[in-house]
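Our preliminary data section would be incomplete without showing what the modeling component actually yields. Below, a chain of 391 amino acids is followed by its predicted structure, encoded as tokens that our downstream tools consume directly.
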Amino acid sequence: MKNVFAIMISTCGIVSAVAAQSWFSQITASQKAVIQQQSLRGISFASPDSGVAVGTQGLILRTVNGGAAWTYSFDTSYTTLNGVNCPSSSICYAVGSYGKIIKTTDAGQTWTPQTSFIKTVGLFSVDCPSTTTCYIGYGSPGLSSTTFLKTTNGGTTWSTQNAPSWGYELNAINCPTATNCYVGGESRAVRKTADGSIWTTPTSPPAPASAASANLPIRGIYCTDALTCYVVGGGGMLAKTTDGMGTWTSENSGTKLSLRSIYFADASTGYASGDSGVILKTTNGGSAWTKENSGTTAGLSGIVFASPTTGYAVGEGGTVLKWGTPTTSIFHANQSLPSRIGKARENTRNFGANGRLVAPAGKFGKARTDGLINGPGIEFDGLNMIGSAPW
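Predicted structure:
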């Protein structure tokens, strides 16, 4: 996954060096042709500078300078990646379809497959309380038990841990300590461990009073300490526990849209994101939530704050939002561009006149029914997009 050329991205709304802070897009509409049909599913920052986001078709975005530049690449298997967690600025783990687990030790520049031995079940979330200890949960209809994968040696080996079955997918996991982990999934089901090995069934969070059905999925979990956790999910579900999921308080999210991710920058300040570009914020530990202007209608599947004042949200159509003072970014690409989505076949027609690299418009966009991307191309001179060219 080497980086050869870059597209300069001009961010809308830049008026001066002292512009007010807001949510702004790090990729403009005219530049999204490269990745726009690939949805981003998760994002993680271990420091203000270093972060990784992952998504469909194995899309991986990485930054090592706080979003001043992003590098994009695709996992060689083109397997959809659903979740990522970075316990340090250099080490990250990502999980996805067909039991996919990959690890990086160089801040996302290169990735190494991990031995999963789970090949038929999708993995949706991973959390690592340390660089060597990580937990992954999975479950699906028909499985006799809900199973967790755990490593204590940085992914060299993964062991299984069984929990009371619910027969549903596990969508979210958060581990505030090396032994305390909480998991949520379909039908408001939750599981927890307090010792890192034995999993139990605590009390499920309540559905919103306005929900048409109580059968709602939990999409996101975040814990500010070993006992205090927040969950978000379908129908605007938002709830808080302060006793390790023994009891819950339903919080008013002010929306019926599905919420998909939640993150707290500190014990009091938290953010939640979800469908139709919704972003919510609390500054009092969840007692009240207000709606932020995200500037997008794209569904937002992941939100994170790299520092108390700098946040990122990712989602549909390759959406990457940043909270802060609007700035420009550079977007780096790979040398090898596959001619088919999902198949890393070398395309010998990538190089046009004057040695310029030519990629088909929407190259990593939605494939036609035959899997081919056709039509006019986008031409680059090694740094900037300089126009279109016949393909």
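Residues 224 and 267 are 6 Å apart (CA to CA). DSSP finds no helices and 33 strands in the chain. Preliminary results of this kind motivate Aim 1 of the renewal.
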